[in-house]
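Worked example 2:
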Amino acid sequence: MWRLLGAGFLVVALAASAAVAQSNAGRGPITNLPMPRYVSMKANEGNVRRGPSLTHRIDWVFKRRDMPVQITAEHGHWRRVQDRDGAGGWVHYALLSGVRTVLVEKDMMAVHARPDPTSPINAAFELGVVARLGSCGPDWCQISAGGYRGWAAKEDLWGVAAEELRD
């Protein structure tokens, strides 16, 4: 049900709906990049708004630089993002970075020397650690954080798609 609160509201709501519909086609209507896709927060703080403009209310604030987020829609200079828990909203593209990071989803996750569970363990990362993402094969990704580097099982990471391969 639409309720007319002013001409501006209706136009923005329709434009946001169009951006969402176009994003379902597999490519972003603004950037022509794959949708959905993962990026990271560039800023230490980033306002998450209810809609794609500065006039929309701030629902909450990202407070962690390098946090991975998933872009699910585009509208002008705005990107609709969601975090690991599915919470999200619209952020200005200037707050986002193409640098790929992942969130560790398993407490004391083993980081191996090679993409093999029998290889030596270089480190163990705690639940919630944000790590830089490197190469990824079908089941393993190379990650680094806190001066440690190695390979982790892809299923223990959020911020990389299950089918994603990276060189």
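The chain has one helix and 14 strands. The longest strand covers residues 68-75.
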